[in-house]
Specification:
Elements lengths: L2 E6 L9 E6 L8 H10 L1 H14 L7 E5 L7 E6 L10 H18 L4 E4 L11 H14 L7 E6 L2 H12 L2
Parallel strand pairs: 1-6, 2-4, 2-5, 5-6
Antiparallel strand pairs: 3-4
The protein binds adenosine-5'-diphosphate.
Length: 171
């Protein structure tokens, strides 16, 4: 039985096996949650990201890679690249769905039992909050990864928190 949790706050503080980063294709860090994870997690995370870049040239939109979590409470960081909102004209919904599925798949392959997601693409990438929340919640509730026991949505802003709270209660 998989548990869905909702927390308001900073994902770098959450104690789970893996936290997900809303990264960019370069994997070299950026603003928002990406900046926070690298800042708190320390240089080890970037070092592993550079190795992944050398091997496969970054990470495509919708895909995911895994690294150490450095100094964070988590054991791993799963970096996924959300789509940039383009008025719905660039298959954004499918790409965002793939972020959640590919992160869960990678988690499952690495024996991760608890995972926390930020609200991918809803910051700098400008994805409309309600549509993004619907995709996130639908995708994780329909996903079939029996080894993953707990999925936490970590909402940084009040708007996202209220949306997720309402939608999760309706499940
Ligand atoms: P993207 O480029 O995918 O939009 P952002 O990092 O700009 O990535 O935003 C993604 C979401 O992460 C936004 O909802 C933003 O409010 C949130 N966020 C920013 N900092 C943190 C943090 N420390 N913990 C959790 N969520 C965060």
């Amino acid at each position: 039985m998989m548990e869905i949790r909702l927390i308001k706050g900073d994902i770098t503080k959450i104690e789970v096996d893996a936290i997900v980063n809303a990264a960019n294709t370069s994997l070299l860090g950026g603003g928002g949650v990406d900046g926070a994870i690298h800042r708190v997690g320390g240089p080890q995370i970037l070092e592993e990201c550079r190795k992944i870049r050398a091997r496969q040239g970054g990470c495509k939109v919708g895909e995911a890679v895994i690294t150490t979590a450095g100094n964070l409470n988590a054991k791993f960081v799963i970096h996924t690249v959300g789509p940039r909102w383009n008025e719905g004209n660039s298959n954004e919904a499918e790409k965002l769905k793939n972020c959640y599925i590919n992160s869960l798949k990678l988690a499952s392959e690495n024996g991760i039992k608890s995972i926390a997601f930020p609200n991918i693409s809803t910051g700098i990438y400008g994805y409309p909050l309600e549509e993004a929340a619907d995709i996130a919640i639908k995708t994780v509730t329909e996903a079939d990864f029996p080894e993953i026991k707990s999925i936490t949505f970590v909402c940084f802003g009040d708007d996202n928190y209220r949306l997720y709270d309402k939608k999760i209660k309706q499940l």
